[in-house]
Design a protein that fits this description.
This protein is an alpha+beta fold. It has five helices and ten strands; from the N terminus they run βαβββαβββααβββα.
């Protein structure tokens, strides 16, 4: 299926013309993003926690709650630009975002967990898994890995300039878009590392998606 089926929980209601359920668009946004925010409720208290997509400490409230099958909301946003309008209320941002509703499923079994952890490391930086020490048996046992089936998901995208009335452009203010892009800076070597090891190309020329 090329489209996610909109549900009551994922249907875009505000600015529905910006909404999309296209599977490839949602995958592209998720592949480019690096951090998501997870919203969940524990004992009546809502929490929103920034995290990576795959794993965390077994002792964390987040992982314990999600592993129990509790419903959650996952959101990702990529900022593409600041929109400068001729009016104060017309200012906006260009963005690409995804919202996923669902329940997490623990990944069981040493081989399956190891494969998922390898996939995550490669998602962070392609080629990195082969360069580092793999998880020890104790580390593998002490790490919880959760899978999130993509069943309910939607995307929302804004592009272009301000939508103010033409008459408002008589304002002396500059109007347009200031593009924004997340880019890596120069690598900073760990002082405990071997100074004779040069920065590998996959880090020196890092970009998203991997």
């Amino acid at each position: 299926m090329s489209q996610f089926t909109p549900t009551e929980r994922t249907k875009v209601r505000r600015k529905p013309d910006r909404g999309s359920y296209d599977r490839e668009l949602i995958y592209r946004i998720l592949d480019e993003a690096f951090v998501c925010h997870l919203g969940f409720v524990v004992d009546g208290q809502p929490y929103v926690v920034p995290t990576n997509y795959v794993r965390g400490s077994i002792a964390s409230r987040l992982m314990k709650t999600l592993a129990s099958g509790a419903p959650f909301c996952l959101s990702v946003t990529l900022l593409d630009g600041i929109v400068f309008a001729p009016t104060a209320v017309g200012h906006s941002v260009n963005y690409r975002s995804v919202v996923v509703m669902g329940k997490a499923e623990p990944i069981e079994g040493e081989a399956a967990k190891l494969a998922a952890m390898r996939d995550f490391v490669e998602y962070v930086n392609r080629g990195r898994w082969a360069a580092v020490r793999p998880p020890s048996e104790q580390e593998l046992k002490g790490t919880m890995v959760l899978a999130v089936p993509l069943v309910e998901a939607s995307a929302k995208v804004r592009t272009g300039f301000a939508v103010d009335n033409t008459d408002d452009y008589a304002s002396p203010a500059w109007t347009g878009v200031l593009p924004m892009k997340w880019t890596a800076q120069a690598p900073v070597p760990d002082p405990r590392g071997n100074p004779e090891i040069s920065v590998p190309a996959n880090i020196l020329h890092y970009s998203r998606p991997q």
